[in-house]
Amino acid sequence: xxxxxxxxxxxxxxxxxxxxxxxxxxxxxxxxxxxxxxxxxxxxxxxxxxxxxxxxxxxxxxxxxxxxxxxxxxxxxxxxxxxxxxxxxxxxxxxxxxxxxxxxxxxxxxxxxxxxxxxxxxxxxxxxxxxxxxxxxxxxxxxxxxxxxxxxxxxxxx
Length: 158
Prior knowledge:
The structure is a single chain. The chain is mainly alpha-helical. The chain is built from 6 helices and 4 strands, in the order E-H-E-H-E-H-H-H-H-E. It has one domain. Helix content is 56%, strand content 8%. Strand 1 (8-11), helix 1 and strand 2 form a beta-alpha-beta unit. Helix 3 packs antiparallel against helix 4 (96-112), helix 4 packs antiparallel against helix 5 and helix 5 packs antiparallel against helix 6. The chain is globular, with a radius of gyration of 15 Å.
């Protein structure tokens, strides 16, 4: 990510069409109102370096060296930001059933693409959503891992 300012749309209109419209016109993220402190901080953290010095360690798939899976792996990594945005919108709207469903989908996909840590974090988010506790922290952890995901050493997810 560059040092440019980021734009986060904050709206009481949390329907998918409104979120999509905001992202289409150039917003970097979307959050629904009311927003909790934890959700706001998790959204802001998406745009901060993961480690001191601004460097992040890439999270490579266990399948990254397999040229036959490379196109599918790249597509999976490319779609991670949209998956996280959808989960953030569901958390902001306190639709924890949707959060659990989205986390469950990501858990299965990440396992298929060789991202064990994303699989584990998605499972933790799914469980937190089902228990209705600790969802904001679990989503922040999952988003942090997804930001580090790479199809190859040179690829950037978001």
